[in-house]
Structure formats: C-alpha cells, structure tokens
Amino acid sequence: MNTETNQANKNRVWDFWQRITADNVDVLTDIINEHSTVSAPWTGPHPINQLDTTEEVVEQFWRPLFTAFPDLKRETFIFSGGESNGRVDGGEDGREWVCGLGNFVGTFEADWLTIPASHTEVAIRWGEFCRMEGGKIAETYILLDIPDLMRQAGYPVLPPDRGEEGLWPAPMNNDGVLLDEQDADETDKSMQLIRAMIYDGLNSFDESELQSMGMADFFREDMRWYGPSGIGGNHGLAAFQENHQQHWLHAFPDRRVQDLDSLFTEGRYMCASGWAGVIATHTGEYLDVPATGKEVRFNGIDVWVRDDEKITENWVFVDMIDLYRQFGIDLFARMHEQTS
User: Fold this and answer.
1) Closest CA to 202 of 217, 187, 190
2) For the segment 10-34, what is each residue's pLDDT rounded down to a tens digit?
3) Angle formed at CA 313 by CA 311 and CA 315, multiple of 5 degrees
4) Full-prediction pTM beyond 0.90?
5) What is the pLDDT of residues 215-230, one digit of tens each?
6) Burial of 147 (C-beta count, 10 Å sphere; 0-12/13-18/19+)
7) Which of 103, 267, 269, 339, by CA, is between 20 and 30 Å from 186?
8) Side-by-side strand order, sheet with 42-43
9) Do 263 and 90 form a contact (C-beta atoms < 8 A)?
10) For residue 144, which of 46, 59, 17 has the smallest C-alpha distance?
11) Are 43 and 63 in contact (CB under 8 A)?
C-alpha cells in the first residue's frame, strides 16, 4: 500500500470519528453510510457481538451508548494505519487498516447494557480497527473494557487487579496520533520486531519456563504494560511477568497466536486485532476460575510502541466478558447479584 492510500484511509476514519457524536445521533445512519462500503460488518464486545447493517450498528450500539452517556466525548491518544502482515507463516495478507485507541469520557446518566447508571463521570477504554477498501470502511472491530466500567459504577465483577487498577494513559512521549506520513524505514523495522516477538517469541513458549519466550529480547526492562480490568497495569518487565504473564501461562500453557485479523505498523507503532486471535486450553486456575479443561478463544486488541530496538509500552484489550462466558460464567449475572 502506498503512502497516499494510507493517508487517505486515515483521513477518512479520522473525519468519521469526529462526526460520530451525540449531537449527530439522528443522522448517524447517513454519516456511517457516507464513510462505509455497502456491506460493512461491525464486530464488538460481548454481549453486542456482530452487527451486520448500519441500522443495527446505530440502534444497538451508538444510540444506546449516547442515551446512557449524553455528553460522551471520544479521546484518541493513538491513531495509525497500515498494511496487514498477520499470517503466522508470513504469507501474503496486504489488507488495509486504520486503528485508534483511547477513552470515551462522559457522565453515566442512564443504564447501559443493564449496568445501573452511576450519574458520575466515567472513562470507558476503547480500541477500534477499521478495515478499508477503496478508501471506505469495509469492516470494524471494536472492544470496550466493560468490566472496568462496571467497576467504576460500583459493581466489580472481577477479582482485584494484580497490577495497577485503572491505568490507561496516553503514550509517554505523547506522539501516538499519526495524522502525518511516517518514515517507511521505521515502519519496516517495527514490523520485523513485532512479528519476531509474536511468532518467534510468544509462540515459542515451552509450557514450562517464561524465559523460553525470550521476552527480554523484545521488551525494555522498564517497559510499561497497560492491561484490561481484571489484570491491571504494570511498570517494568519483571512486574509484567509476575502479575500477569506467569498466571496467564499457568492457566493457558498451550496458547498460541493464530493468523490475526490485522497486524500492521506505522512508524514506531505496532497494532494488532484478533477475534480468536489466540486459542488455548484452560488447564489451570485463572483469576477466580478453576481449570475447566475447555478450549477457549480470545478476542483481543494490542498496540505497542518501540524505542530503537525494543518495545517500551503495550496497551492490551481482552474481551473478559466473552472469556468468562466460555468458562461458563455470566459476569452480568454476577453484577446483578450485587444490585439485588
């Protein structure tokens, strides 16, 4: 994909996001149709999941969201685009993508997804990936950290984070919104690093020793890792391994990264989305759930940034509600037990 195409794709999505507001709720259908192809499926977090038409996206996602948070504003602190190279074998992919990450900030004035309104200001973590065709949005993947919203509303449905709770900052260098063209050599260097980390590192776990993945070769010792509710944030590689990675690998030792829906880079930023992007067997306790022996599929989003040869920050989404659903546990039912 040439630079001109990537810039046009980013301009299209950026304009789209600026116009998706509560003030425009009555014309959202027209706005979405203007920026999208005729058929543009939308895939989101459980329990919303897949929506196939513009009307479904408006009526089942955007309108309820703006009704619940009438002053909702989108904060974007990472924004980039590029050409995907997400196959494990390195075979041709070449799909065009644009992604962003940040917070939706607003006052929780009406119930949403049966979560009782708190009438307080909340920040909802979001990550969104748009696949582009012919300069328009052809498919959307989006995750929101719904358990973290439940926590903010006073209904914690997951055990306390082992890492730092609520940590979801902008990049330390405040350089994540890539509206301008980026250096092609830096983009290529980022792709080499992230493919090596995922497919040669993470997928090399010997189901025994963390060191078998060689994460120290890819992450700086003082890296920062920002995880979803239930996991939390960590400062430093050692804290990341102690608070998250060792528990994850104990529970899912055979987990492997699959062909991803997207894996692209731009400049120093690296972005990936995958619905069933990781598949594993639940053979050890995870958080508060004993091993079920079930195969589980993780829906997730990752964004990384590097400094020279190593990753310095990593923002991570996992659809925890969908994961618990696969365990046989309904986190909404757990929330409702707290409200009764």
Assistant:
1) 217
2) 999 999 999 999 999 999 999 999 9
3) 125
4) yes
5) 788 999 999 999 999 9
6) buried
7) 103
8) 50-51, 42-43, 136-144, 121-133, 96-107, 73-83
9) no
10) 46
11) no
Cα 123 to the chain's mean position, in Å?
A: 15
Amino acid, single-letter form, for residue 108: F
**CA angle, 234 then 238 then 239, to 5°:** 30
Cα end-to-end distance, the chain, whole Å: 54
Which one, of 98, 231, 244, lies nearest residue 177 by Cα?
A: 98
Strands (E) in the chain, as ranges, are: 42-43, 50-51, 73-83, 96-107, 121-133, 136-144, 219-226, 233-235, 256-257, 262-266, 269-281, 295-307, 310-318
Concatenating the DSSP letter of every residue in 47-114 gives: TT-EE-SHHHHIIIIIHHHHHHSTT-EEEEEEEEEEE----TT------EEEEEEEEEEEE--S-BTT
d(CA 332, CA 18): 31
CB 296 within 8 A of CB 326: yes
Torsion of CA 230, 127, 103, 49, to 10 degrees: -70
- 210: which 2 tokens? 């963390």
Q: What are the φ/ψ torsions at residue 132 (nearest 5 degrees)?
A: -110, 140
Q: How far is CA 69 from CA 116, 164, 167, 266, in A?
A: 12, 26, 22, 33
